[in-house]
Design brief:
Keywords: Membrane, Transmembrane, Transmembrane helix. The chain has 94 residues and is mostly helical. It is 47% helix and 0% strand. It contains 4 helices and no strands. 4% of the residues are buried.
Amino acid sequence: MYLLLHTVKGTPFETPDQGKDRLLTHWEQIDYGMQCTSSRKFLSISPVVLYLLTSFYTKYDPAHFVINTASLLSVLLPKLPQFHGVRLFGINKY
């Protein structure tokens, strides 16, 4: 999910936006950049549900718990409205 929504930029087809979306990731283009829409909420809640299920089925094993928490944070943090258009350390700048 991270690779698809947060690293791939541009659109796969011609858009009438004069190339404005060329520098935005797919997550930033969802619902024309509006925050807190139903599709964004669904895509933000689904990793949390998977995290809770994997924590339960691994019986809260410490090693799995740390790995799952790190992966959950790596998927949820870029989805926050504060990170809209932000490129950390210049990664994915162009």
